[in-house]
């Protein structure tokens, strides 16, 4: 890992995101660029824009000093749509990873289509580390959510690159789909037979996860959780067992994400640990 892009605002989480960036920069010897994007401003007012630019740079300098970087990071202030500016900067810098805080949706538009963090996660072409916790200690225990898709492999590779010395657990969550449960009830399936079916499906998931581990992560622990993936992963993230959860995110557009939801989006708002998200979604 050679280049880290850190996207910060001045309302949420900037100090903890920069502290994590300083830790990772020291661990990997990576160069860091800290970016702040000013939105909803008429750039046709040069005097005002200049004043805002200077204030933003002064604030970034103070935040970077407080974070304790071993090497002074580059600072970047831009005017525009935040997630687009972040993704453009990541491409221009050939960044290996983007760090960002979870933020809080502050407008009706953001509540429908997602916060800046949500949009960056859905559109970035590199892994995104969403820093939810204040601790800047090195990650020691990582859970990689596995759904047996290529994005699971991408999440595992991103975790190994970010924290090569951490313990890795492979986690798969499974529940019998509700329509199937209802169908078993309608045809009079006995409770013990229904439970045997559920257990058989769990055993099948364990075999698949063990095969995935042998192929991609020899030596990693494998854990199958019963329950809806979103709920099971939120509970795991809050259990204290892991300090980083890595997952892939599927390629949906913004409207589909808003209407249907996703495991990644739920974790953005509810997870109890930091999130590493791998997956590219075209705008």
UniProtKB/TrEMBL annotation:
Pfam families: Usp (PF00582). Residues 1-132, 139-277 form the UspA domain. It comes from the Bacteria. Belongs to the universal stress protein A family. This is UspA domain-containing protein. It comes from Pannonibacter phragmitetus.
